[in-house]
């Protein structure tokens, strides 16, 4: 029913191609998050599925029907926009019922479906208010109500939470997840916030520069990132990277001559590599990689340590309490399965990745 | 000790000084504008008020003996004044809605992104830069009953010939057509700017929600534009009350008094009949009426905005 197939979809503005052949198969009822830094093409792809942008090449199928030349209103989709896009002159009830009125659904049925959706979203008390009389979170909920009233094949979300403050974002995030578990409607969700993508989706599609970097269940991306980009993008705080030359199979020889013994060798036997370790996978021990502590930040349940290995700043996250004065040398150990070895490449601009509102 | 004593009156002085200096600076910045306003607006208004309550002395060309409301009484009793007011009213009732509706509709049509849009917009400005008297004369030729091109075209589809300036109703229609030609582009410009400022995603939501072209216009675009439409109405209303130049050039109030708008009548009374005092009284009446009606309209449009 609500399947979506994207087959080698391309998008070009004039001579500039921004999507270079994207293929994704989305099953009925699946929740897929498109995630990537700004300009990666995720929103463009969503708008192509919605029919708000033409498809330059390839096919998009919704419910097994090619929709390349089908008008948005005939695709049986509903979209939630970043800025809510509520009709400012209509009250909540009319906003939610508008699409049904356009489809000439009988009035009693509209009233029934609107009040059912309002009940699900807790909007019953607000039905007679205008959008300008609502808070950001309430507007967001109305925008979702407008989508679910339609009972469409597919929900499309375009960065729906990025205009909300941090606390509300977390709350709405779990509401969206709950809503999906309840309605089980196929959902495509665009975000630049990897945590949103990880927590919400059955499957995450990481995009970068108009191509798919990796696609898979959230924990698979976390455990086995296919590229340096995905490794840097997924996970918070982000993965640490150390570059150098591999010697004697498992010795990482860094630029300043520091030698670190890796718990595993590189199965691909590369000589130049970038090694990645997540902050939470380091353990402080008696032996291991020597690191110089610069800052220790306790948060109660865990402690974040900023330290330097061979002059490079790394972050370490340990459970529980830890204290050490600055400039102390500590030793770090990593389990073999937590060492990621990549081709050497310039690191993606983490500042840009972290522009998460 | 003496330092403190010497300093305290000094500090009080420095406290007052910046304040007066600040006031001085503010007023000196405003002074040029104030002088201009007084010379160009306030003085003529009060001069007109003065004349309207006095007997006008042609010899000294100024207000003479104070006569109170006599000029007003005379004007209000003058049926010609009320006839010209009626003509103005008829013109307003037709011209304003036509211009605003047409302006916004054209703007909506040319708002879609297409290659010739910029050029078309530029062409639309031409009527506004043509001098009104030239426009009036030009349209006199176009509408000429014998060799005007409009009657020729109407003849091709079997209409006419229409006596544009001989028939009372047609003469009014002609004035409204010319005025519409001249002012609709202005409304198109405002409307285009307003439409470009509308939130794009609301229209995209409408597209997904199943709106066609017509329901997008009626259910989304028009309600969102209500504040701008109301503002445009006020701007055009204030401009249209002053209607004078096109009538002067195209019909000179004729035939008979069919297009004799109130400003033309005031002009004639003042500068042809030299009845400056009565003309001043009429001008004051028109001014007050305009202010009152504008106030009512602004209040009404605010109510309208609350509605939407």
TrEMBL record, chain A:
List, alphabetically, the Pfam families matched.
ABC_tran, OB_MalK
> What's in the keyword line of the UniProt record?
ATP-binding, Nucleotide-binding, Transport
Identify the GO cellular component terms for this protein: ATP-binding cassette (ABC) transporter complex, substrate-binding subunit-containing
Coiled-coil boundaries: none
| Gene Ontology MF, one | ABC-type transporter activity
**InterPro entries per the record?**
AAA+_ATPase (IPR003593), ABC_transporter-like_ATP-bd (IPR003439), ABC_transporter-like_CS (IPR017871), ABC_transpr_MalK-like (IPR015855), ABC_transpr_MalK/UgpC-like (IPR047641), Mo/tungstate-bd_C_term_dom (IPR008995), NA-bd_OB-fold (IPR012340), OB_MalK-like (IPR040582)
Record domain ABC transporter: where: 4-234
Gene3D superfamilies linked: 2.40.50.100, Nucleic acid-binding proteins, P-loop containing nucleotide triphosphate hydrolases
Q: Which GO terms describe its biological process?
A: carbohydrate transport
Question: What PANTHER family does the database record attribute to this sequence?
Answer: BLL2173 PROTEIN, MALTODEXTRIN IMPORT ATP-BINDING PROTEIN MSMX
Q: Which family does it belong to?
A: Belongs to the ABC transporter superfamily.
For this entry, the protein name equals ABC transporter ATP-binding protein
State the organism named in the record.
Seohaeicola zhoushanensis
UniProtKB/TrEMBL annotation, chain B:
Just give the chief location class. Answer: membrane
Q: Which CDD domains match?
A: TM_PBP2
List the keywords (alphabetical).
Answer: Cell membrane, Membrane, Transmembrane, Transmembrane helix, Transport
Extract the signal peptide range: none
Membrane-spanning segments: 23-46, 89-110, 122-143, 149-166, 173-197, 217-239, 246-267, 279-298
Organism expressing this protein natively: Seohaeicola zhoushanensis
Gene3D superfamilies (alphabetical):
MalF N-terminal region-like, MetI-like
Q: A GO term (biological process) for this protein? A: transmembrane transport
Describe the location of the ABC transmembrane type-1 domain by residue ranges.
85-297
Would you tell me the Gene Ontology cellular component terms? plasma membrane
Record-linked PROSITE patterns: ABC_TM1
Q: What is this protein called?
A: Binding-protein-dependent transport system inner membrane protein
């Amino acid at each position: 029913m609500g399947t979506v197939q994207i087959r080698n979809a391309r998008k070009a503005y004039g001579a500039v191609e921004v999507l270079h052949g994207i293929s994704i198969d989305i099953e009925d009822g699946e929740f897929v998050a498109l995630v990537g830094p700004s300009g990666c093409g995720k929103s463009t792809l969503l708008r192509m599925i919605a029919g708000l942008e033409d498809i330059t090449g390839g096919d998009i199928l919704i419910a097994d029907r090619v929709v390349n030349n089908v008008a948005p209103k005939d695709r049986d989709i509903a979209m939630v926009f970043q800025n809510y896009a509520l009709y400012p002159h209509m009250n909540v009830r009319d906003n939610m019922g508008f699409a049904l009125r356009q489809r000439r659904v009988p009035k009693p049925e509209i009233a029934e479906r609107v009040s059912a959706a309002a009940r699900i979203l807790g909007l019953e008390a607000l039905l007679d208010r205008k959008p300008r009389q609502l808070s950001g979170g309430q507007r967001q909920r109305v925008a979702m109500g407008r989508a679910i009233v339609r009972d469409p094949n597919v929900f499309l979300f375009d960065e729906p939470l990025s205009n909300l403050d941090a606390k509300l974002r977390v709350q709405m995030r779990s509401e969206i997840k709950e809503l999906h578990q309840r309605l089980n409607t196929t959902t495509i969700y665009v975000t630049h916030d990897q945590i949103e993508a990880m927590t919400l989706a059955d499957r995450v599609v990481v995009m970068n520069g108009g191509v798919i970097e990796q696609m898979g269940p959230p924990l698979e991306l976390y455990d086995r990132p296919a590229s340096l980009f995905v490794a840097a993008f997924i996970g918070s705080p982000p993965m640490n990277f150390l570059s150098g030359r591999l010697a004697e199979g498992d010795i990482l020889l860094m630029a300043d001559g520091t030698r670190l013994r890796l718990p595993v060798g590189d199965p691909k036997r590369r000589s130049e590599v970038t090694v990645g370790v997540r902050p939470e996978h380091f353990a402080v021990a008696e032996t291991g990689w020597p690191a110089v502590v610069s800052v220790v930040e306790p948060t109660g349940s865990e402690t974040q340590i900023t330290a330097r290995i061979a002059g490079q700043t790394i972050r370490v996250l340990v459970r529980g309490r830890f204290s050490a004065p600055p400039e102390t040398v500590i030793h770090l150990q990593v389990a073999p399965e937590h060492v990621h070895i990549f081709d050497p490449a310039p690191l993606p601009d983490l500042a840009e990745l972290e522009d998460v509102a | 000790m003496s330092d403190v004593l010497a300093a305290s009156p000094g500090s009080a002085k420095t406290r007052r000084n910046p304040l007066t200096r600040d006031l001085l600076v503010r007023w000196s910045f405003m002074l040029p504008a104030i002088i201009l306003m007084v010379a160009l607006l306030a003085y003529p208004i009060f001069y007109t008020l003065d004349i309207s309550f006095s007997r006008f002395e042609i010899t000294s060309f100024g207000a003479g003996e104070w006569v109170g409301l006599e000029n007003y009484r005379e004007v209000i009793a003058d049926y010609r004044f009320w006839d010209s007011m009626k003509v103005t009213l008829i013109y307003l009732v037709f011209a304003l809605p036509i211009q605003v509706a047409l302006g916004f509709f054209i703007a909506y049509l040319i708002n879609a992104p297409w290659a010739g849009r910029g050029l078309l917009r530029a062409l639309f400005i031409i009527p506004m830069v043509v001098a009104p008297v030239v426009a009036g004369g030009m349209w006199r030729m176009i509408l000429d009953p014998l060799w005007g091109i409009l009657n020729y075209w109407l003849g091709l589809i079997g209409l006419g010939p229409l006596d544009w300036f001989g028939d009372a109703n047609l003469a009014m229609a002609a004035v409204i057509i010319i005025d519409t030609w001249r002012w609709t582009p202005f409304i198109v410009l405002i409307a285009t700017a307003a439409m470009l400022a509308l939130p794009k995603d609301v229209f995209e939501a409408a597209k997904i929600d199943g709106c066609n072209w017509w329901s997008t216009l009626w259910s989304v675009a028009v309600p969102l534009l209500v504040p701008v439409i109301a503002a445009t109405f006020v701007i055009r209303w204030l401009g249209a009350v002053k209607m004078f130049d096109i009538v002067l050039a195209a019909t000179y109030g004729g035939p008979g008094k069919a297009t004799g708008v109130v400003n033309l009548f005031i002009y004639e009374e003042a500068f042809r009949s030299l009845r400056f005092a009565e003309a001043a009284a009429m001008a004051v009446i028109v001014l007050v009426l305009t202010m009152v009606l504008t106030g009512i309209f602004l209040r009404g449009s605010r109510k309208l905005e609350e509605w939407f």
